[in-house]
Amino acid sequence: AGAQQASAPAPLKVGLLPFGTVSWEAAVIKAEGIDAAEGLSLEGVRLAGSDAARIAFQGGQVDTIVSDLLWAARLRAEGRAVKFLPYSSTEGALMVPGGSSLTSVAGLAGKRLGVAGGPLDKNWLLLRARAREKDGLDLERAAQPVFGAPPLLMRKLESGELDAALLYWTFCARLEARGFRRLIGADGIAEAFGVEGPIALLGYVFDEALLQREPHTVAGFARASARAKQALAAGEAAWAPVRPLMAAEDEATYATLKRAFLDGIPRRTAASERSDAERLYAVLARLGGERLVGAAATLPEGLYWDGGPNG
Amino acid sequence: MPAGAEFRRAAADPILTLTVRRKVYRPERSEPVEAVRDLVVSVRGGETLCLIGPSGAGKTTTLRILLGLDRDYEGSLTTRPDLRIGMVFQEPRLLPWRTVEENVRLSLPRPERRQSLDALFDELGLSAWRDRYPRALSLGMARRVALARALALAPGLLVLDEPFVSLDDAAAASLRAAVFGSAGSRGAAVLMVTHNVPEALAVADRLLLLSGRPASLVADVPLRTPKLDRGRDWGEAMRRDLAAKYPGTVAGA
Amino acid sequence: MPAGAEFRRAAADPILTLTVRRKVYRPERSEPVEAVRDLVVSVRGGETLCLIGPSGAGKTTTLRILLGLDRDYEGSLTTRPDLRIGMVFQEPRLLPWRTVEENVRLSLPRPERRQSLDALFDELGLSAWRDRYPRALSLGMARRVALARALALAPGLLVLDEPFVSLDDAAAASLRAAVFGSAGSRGAAVLMVTHNVPEALAVADRLLLLSGRPASLVADVPLRTPKLDRGRDWGEAMRRDLAAKYPGTVAGA
Amino acid sequence: MALLARLGSALLLLAAWWLASRSVDPRTLPSPEAVAAFLVREAASGDLLRNIGVTLWRVAASFCLAMATGAALGIALGRSRAADRLLDTPLLVLLNTPALVITVLAYIWLGLTETAAILAVALNKMPNVAVILREGARGLDPGLEEMAQAYRYDRRTWIRHVLIPQLEPFAVAAARSGVSLAWKIVLVVELLGRPNGVGYAISYYFQLFDVAALIGYSLVFSAVMLAVDAVLLQPLDARARRWR
Amino acid sequence: MALLARLGSALLLLAAWWLASRSVDPRTLPSPEAVAAFLVREAASGDLLRNIGVTLWRVAASFCLAMATGAALGIALGRSRAADRLLDTPLLVLLNTPALVITVLAYIWLGLTETAAILAVALNKMPNVAVILREGARGLDPGLEEMAQAYRYDRRTWIRHVLIPQLEPFAVAAARSGVSLAWKIVLVVELLGRPNGVGYAISYYFQLFDVAALIGYSLVFSAVMLAVDAVLLQPLDARARRWR
Ligand SMILES: Nc1ncnc2c1ncn2[C@@H]1O[C@H](COP(=O)(O)OP(=O)(O)OP(=O)(O)O)[C@@H](O)[C@H]1O
Ligand SMILES: Nc1ncnc2c1ncn2[C@@H]1O[C@H](COP(=O)(O)OP(=O)(O)OP(=O)(O)O)[C@@H](O)[C@H]1O
Ligand SMILES: [Mg+2]
Ligand SMILES: [Mg+2]
To answer: N or C: which terminus of chain E carries fewer CB neighbours within 10 A?
Structure first.
């Protein structure tokens, strides 16, 4: 790394989404000069949404994006050698209004239930499996699922048109700030399938070719990411550059977003992440079939990157 | 009241009276054009009236007003309420997307659409063309279709804007026979615009001579000689007479 | 070679020869229509040729072939390569979105577009209408514009499809004078379709009489009497003569 | 003959695609075989038929709705100057409101229902139809109009024999560009609030970045549209054009 | 006069909106004031102008590209039967390919660049223009065509004085519906791969479910389009229609 530090720092392009936490991390890295210290120059590339991020990654316009494990696994299974570096275990949850009489998954029978991401959403598949196994309830028939775009579902939950909604975590955090509560989180659902700890289903995805070409840059970036997270966990000071990016309309929302982010910092070894992930993947492969996970019935070999600070 | 008197009264009463004090076209972005001034046309039942005037005088304009197609004029129009008018425009104006026969039938009121038109098409020499579209017709043939359309209606008043041009003499003569034969047998009136003075002299009960633009009445000339007695010499004399009196409207032979 | 001989040779040589063995329209989904059969038209420089035939015979079809607008026929067409043809269609066919003047100018080759047209518009009585759009013209006026368009081109051959209908006698006479005056002074040939036999007898050097559809040549009648000597009586006699010989084409008076 | 030409040009297209796919990364341009294989799999699972069916129904319903209201509005605007002045601005605003916004508002106000979806599509497409037919209604032949008036054509006769034949080319243009527009918007609408249909499938496979699936679905839908065009629009069009 | 009517109808629309917003939840239908307040804030930050500007540029570039190529193609197809037979199928396929798919493919093949974005929009819109102008070119007046041929109109004269005036209503229809289509597709294109523009802003505010922002942006864009229409299209149209 020393040789590289002497020359100009190697650039690394990272895809940033408007509400993505990656942009928070990137802001901290930049503000505290962590990237330069690790021998690279982080270049944020603004993108409109996760679809755009995937296009950008596929087209080689960015070096890395944060994406979900299933997508990375599918890419690798289909022959594009990518590596996955755990980023966050923060996940969605099934939200209900604060005053709702609902207390358990079993109570969902006959309720109108919003589901972000559609019938093949992984959390929805897991929730259905859990309900069937634990409560003997077929949610698809017993409840009235409504699929749609997350902001729309959030709005429908607020207006009372839905009794509960399975949403992504940023929406959950906002709802929590407004007095809604979690009926069950993704981690809670996953527990039912023997998963041992919080599992990071989101991670940075890299091309293996980049790793081979510039191992130091990537390793430096992994360390920079970890240091930024530590700084954010350490205290309020580091949050200054992040706050304007959060679009938090009030203190309560800010606080819940912050807490949810910090709770999701992956702290486990790659090996334990991997074994939990394999367990979950098997369940999902069984439930979602080829349409969800592609041709591979098990997590492809070598998906996790061991060179990171956790490895 | 005996039927004969009834008929005479009807013939004497005008079935249509048009008074145009002024008709001015006002195109956007250019000078207004005064097309008609102080013109009164009244048509009595059963009579044949010929309108003669120079090119661009305002004849077509007058007919459009008379048919109620243009209401933007100073003056008044009264029509017998049940009067059926069959119109032959200066151009054929057929629906190009309908066959010859459909063009004729569509102009009839719904209950009359299924009537037989064989005799009419035969008379106008159109039988072979009933199923063709207007594009496949020569201009003269298209004019005949336009005439057929007006005649099929069995109108109480037939309004014709230069109907017999683009036709050879033989065809024109047989069409004239068809038109005036049918009108005469039904007691229908005919109002015809023409540039052909001999033609007008042969068929009219009355001539209306118009000045150049703006069209206004120069003379209302009743022709009292019975039609059968109107020979070539009478025509020549009459024409010379008119040309002398109204040189702006009727040219010398 | 003296200039006079040159001119005579040019006048004797045809400037255009059209031979149509057969022209058949084949509309989709209906019977074919044979419009012309075995017709030869050759036009010599400076002569006036009149084409007379019944309505729907195939006259317009013949002109379209002669102008190269329809190449789907059996036969051949040869034209002097530098021959300019001015055409007056049976309908005015003006560009409705261009003014009267633009309509005339656009038909000239680019280098000639800026020439003065004042005399021409004056002669045809159109000066006041130069800046108007065709919609604001009466049909007779539109026909005059179509004539102006053809004359402005200073053509070597003027092809006219019934040009003088929808015009009063005075206007028609002055237009005829304009057309034949201009053609005569430039030694241009004129090929005119008409239904008006007296008109043809007054202006033609040669008559081509056509049969009914399919149009084919019935007679090629040269008129050797000098035009100035063609009085009314000559015309009457000639007409009677033609009507007797070719009753299918020329009607008795 | 016409069919043969169509087939030929389709085959040409296919050949070009096949050749192109040889020379690039199969993940960015999958070969025709790969797409065919995907379609076979998807058809076997029943999803293909179900999704196409449900989308087709939505397209058809909203297309009919939009054509009917859009044509009526466009004709009214083209014929009445007053109506045009009054409604021109709202029409342009609606025309320029993004599909996303209309769809979101429809879902908010009418709930996440099938009615909302179909209404949203129709509302997106309607101003387009209106704008095209307005131009048609503006250019009606005044000569024929006078003729119809002189002969006292009744309303039905006028509409059927005078109005519609003159609007026909505009209506065909609106229909052709309209069907495709309807289906493009259905995709957005399905993406935002329906759990099925081609739009849902496409967004789903898009998440997975399955280009073969994207191309497969869009080709199948194009094929369906080609069939609709060949079986419905073209014969209608040919009938209306017989006179030319 | 025409301007007054426009203004009046805009005010009417505003009043109706204001009244409606009184009676419902402001989160589903924000009041005009709320939208105005948002716009003021957004304008002050400079984002509004920047986003509108960049989107406008993309719309203009792709619109011109699509109109030029689409018109040329449409006219060729409308006049030549052979060309129509050969290219009809690819045209219909392209017409029915979803914006999403074209955009994704353009981005994948050409990278996330401005060129790819503009090309994607143009490619989406072009078949629409072609389909509309094809109908126009099919209906050219044969009488005028013969006249032009008889008088040996040169190519330029024919195009300017015979062809274009007859295509004018179709071109206006294509332009009106086309500008709006272009801008709708620009939104998709911006959503998928541009870090700025109205499409980016709208998707951003949609995530926040800020309906006021959605309506605000779409209204501002409508206003821009109304202005373009009033300043450019309408005078052109009026000039072309003088003769009626
Ligand atoms: N829409 C219009 N706008 C302006 N002027 C018009 C319009 N229609 C007709 N005119 C003018 O009104 C006058 C009368 O036209 P009209 O068609 O009535 O003549 P006409 O007597 O029928 O002539 P013709 O014998 O040539 O058919 C003409 O000078 C014409 O230019
Ligand atoms: N496009 C066409 N399709 C089929 N038949 C046609 C077509 N054009 C003309 N005809 C037929 O060809 C014949 C000749 O037509 P043409 O127009 O040449 O006649 P014309 O001698 O000019 O008659 P007119 O004196 O009435 O103008 C007519 O019987 C007509 O019906
Ligand atoms: Mg007239
Ligand atoms: Mg003819």
So the answer is: N
